[in-house]
Amino acid sequence: MSSQLLDEFRSRYYRFQATVDTCLVQESDPTVVQRLADDLAEFRRLLGENSNIFSGEEFGMINHNLSLMIQDVLCHYNAVYDRSHMGR
After folding, report:
1. What angle separates helix 2-25 from helix 30-49, to the nearest 10 degrees?
2. What does residue 54 show for φ and ψ, rounded to 5 degrees?
3. How many angstroms separate the Cα of 65 from the Cα of each of 41, 45, 68, 72, 85?
4. Which residues make Cβ contacts (< 8 Å) with residue 39, sequence separation at least 6?
5. 10-34: per-residue pLDDT in tens?
């Protein structure tokens, strides 16, 4: 069971990584970008609740990278939001 859960966490992590990479280079709707940030935060919370299935090193790396992804997405959100409200 924990092997399947570990594989699922890894799979979702890599999908999030690809989604963030795409989001940061495309013009996106601010609501979609905010939802991505929320989804990343929820995934990070779930990761923390299941930290015992990871090696300490792997957990630390994924947790740190998720933190950076959330920060990047929120910065992108601010930029997209500002552009969408220019001239109002």
Report:
1. 160
2. -105, 155
3. 12, 13, 5, 10, 30
4. 16
5. 999 999 999 999 999 988 899 999 9
